[in-house]
Amino acid sequence: MLDGRAMVRRRAGWRLWLSAGWLGVLVLAALLAPWIAPKDPLAQDLFLGRLPPFWVAGAEPGYYLGTDSLGRDVLSRILYGARLALIVAVVAGTVTCLLGATLGLMAGFLRGWADVVISRFIDIWMAFPPVLFSILLIAVIGPGLGSIILAIVVIDWTRFARVVRAEAMAQGAMDYVASARVAGRGRIGTMLREILPNVLPTVVVLLTLEMGIAVIVEAILSFVNLSISTDDPTWGGMIAEGRTSIHQAWWVLVFPLITLFLTVLAFSQLGEGLKDRYDPVLR
Q1: Residues of 171-200 as b/e, b for ≥16 C-beta within 10 angstroms?
Q2: Which structural domain, as residue segments, surrounds residue 30?
Q3: Helix segments in the chain, DSSP class H
Q4: How many independent structural domains does the chain possess?
Q5: Which of these, 238, 231, 249, lies nearest to 50 by C-alpha position?
Q6: Distances from the Cα of 143 to the Cαs of 114, 140, 219, in angstroms?
Q7: Fewest 10 Å CB contacts: which of 21, 115, 238, 266?
Q8: What is the C-alpha separation between 66 and 54, in angstroms, rounded?
Q9: If we measure between CA atoms, which residue out of 122, 188, 187, 178 comes closest to residue 155?
Q10: What residues have CB less than 8 Å from 83, skipping those under 6 apart?
Q11: What is the distance between the alpha carbons of residues 88 and 93, in angstroms, rounded to a whole number?
């Protein structure tokens, strides 16, 4: 048993360090993009279109990952695209977490009519296909950063609500909750001081996973030109452009795709590592 626990902790440590390391590098790159980006991400030069990366014959100095069909620097666009991806991940993930976790906590602990209303609302909301619903929402209210965040919050809050509701119901049946009620603590006080701290580790894990999902949703929306302006660098937009010229300039597709994959994987593994380390059942 001890060996198994040691293996779980060691695996969680590697996951946390590797995922946090990549996300830390990405955050620094996004913050320092105006200073470390080798070129202007919007600058076009048709004479420099589809230049290969620096290690391939025919490369030009200063264009380390090559250029796209309009002569825009791929590395610079990836760095600036990271800013949008991280903003969407943090803001949309946090708002989604607050909304869904609050409703789930109320439904799971207060029970009664609150549970009935919130649960039925969750069931109705989950009947809509999430990706199609987000695309429809963006098409109606128009593209933009705020629209992307709103779409993610609208389609994903149910994930938090369902999980937190189930966890709050399980915690509400514990003896420490009954002891708090016997000691004279009210329902709201018990929910905030007793239930919430024990549900918080699950919420944190869900939050990291939601950030990865937010990055994917933003990439999908930008892939179909429903994100911000098509001139602004986004990973999904770069992937969509690279798909049309994969045989002539593979680097336009491959490098943003790898960055997107590693970022989503880092958020996912960060959540799994936190779960392995702080899950009370595993401990």
Answers
A1: bbeeeebeebeeeebeeeebbeebbbebbe
A2: 2-278
A3: 2-31, 33-36, 74-110, 112-125, 130-141, 145-172, 175-182, 187-190, 196-223, 235-244, 251-278
A4: 1
A5: 249
A6: 35, 9, 13
A7: 21
A8: 7
A9: 122
A10: 30, 33
A11: 8
Burial of 30: CB neighbours in 10 Å, binned 0-12, 13-18, 19+: middle
In a domain, 283, yes or no: no
Of the candidates 108, 120, 106, 101, the one whose C-alpha atom is nearest the C-alpha of residue 170 is 108
Per-residue pLDDT at 6: 59
Q: Which two tokens stand for residue 27?
A: 């955050």
- Residues 96/149, Cβ–Cβ less than 8 Å: no
pLDDT for the residue numbered 5: 60
In tens digits, the chain (283 residues) has pLDDT values of 445 565 556 666 777 888 999 999 999 999 999 999 999 999 898 888 899 999 988 888 889 999 998 899 999 999 999 999 999 999 999 999 999 999 999 988 888 888 889 888 888 888 777 777 777 888 788 778 888 898 889 888 888 999 999 888 888 777 777 777 777 777 777 777 878 888 888 898 899 999 999 999 889 888 888 777 667 899 999 999 898 888 889 999 999 999 999 999 999 888 877 776 665 555 5
- Amino acid of residue 214: A
CB 7 within 8 A of CB 261: no
- CATH number for the domain including 89? 1.10.3720.10
Q: How far apart are CA 187 and CA 231, in angstroms?
A: 52
Q: How many residues does the chain have?
A: 283
